Amino acid sequence: MILPNEEQDAAAVAGHYDELDAAYRRIWGEHVHHGLWRTGRESPREATEALIETVAQRLEPRGGQALCDIGCGYGGTAHYLAEHYHVAVTGLTISSAQASVALARRASAGALVFLERDWLANGLAAASFDGAYAIESSEHMVDKPRFFAEAFRVLKPGGRLVVCAWLAKSDPSRSEVRHLLEPICREGRLPGMGSREEYEAMAAAAGFALRGYEDIGRQVGRTWAICLRRVAAGLVTDRELRRLALSRATQNRSFLLSLPRLWWALRTGAMRYGVFTWQKP
Could you give phi then psi for residue 51, rounded to 5 degrees? Predict the structure, then answer.
């Protein structure tokens, strides 16, 4: 497990997303996660929805089922799944800024419920969901074994858990840890970045059976090139984005100014992007 030099807790994670709310919405829009370029010809929106479809293919949702979105952000993915698959989705976010946006959403099909709540103390009923997914939120969990234990608890027997995660390569060099992985954890408010092997061990300890894994790091890396261009343009045209990025009062501005590090980490393979599928027996 790659650990940041400065300890990160749930309050730091929430503060990160609350403080950078304007930047996230300007740069990422309603989906705060990577896009997936299978052919290389996809638009950013198509790539973003392609990642959601990748999750859906592994969840195999059916109309009327109940899904749980662990770390739902602004609710964009939950809304997409409710509309396209006619499922009910309960989303949790630790950020009050994200929750306020998500709560204003309306689904044209299915049902949406959003909660401002820490997943590690979610208070949800046991065996209440047919499926669950976490798209780039497990990295922010202070207690990752408990992350998996809670997912196992709230799923019905046979329910699937799909996790899209930033991962450290299995054997990073000292230089990769020092210049890429540790700063990414520190600047992105990640209490720790695990490897594929560590994730699989923690999930197995919680009781899950692994059903599949795919490394799509090469196919999602373009996300950061797009973000870099949008930030560069925003620094010229967007006063609020410029204030967040350049003001020393912004506690999380280092994340905005270190996007090239994420692009390079994925490009070189120091960081991987894994899609896991697990099932509760």
Answer: -70, -40
Grouping H, G, I as helix, E, B as strand and the rest as coil, residue 240 is helix
What class, spelled out in words, does domain 10-279 have in CATH? alpha beta
C-alpha angle 225-229-230 in degrees, rounded to nearest 5: 115
Are 30 and 212 in contact by the 8 Å Cβ rule? The answer is no
As given in the structure block, the two tokens for residue 190 are 């990640």
What are the domain boundaries of the chain? 10-279
For 163-183, the pLDDT digits (tens) are 999 999 999 999 999 999 999
- CA 7, 274, 253: angle at the middle one, nearest 5? 40
| pLDDT score at 107 | 56
Tell me the CA distances in angstroms from 177 to 171, 237, 246, 253, 265, one per residue in order: 10, 35, 27, 21, 10
Integer Rg of the chain from CA: 18
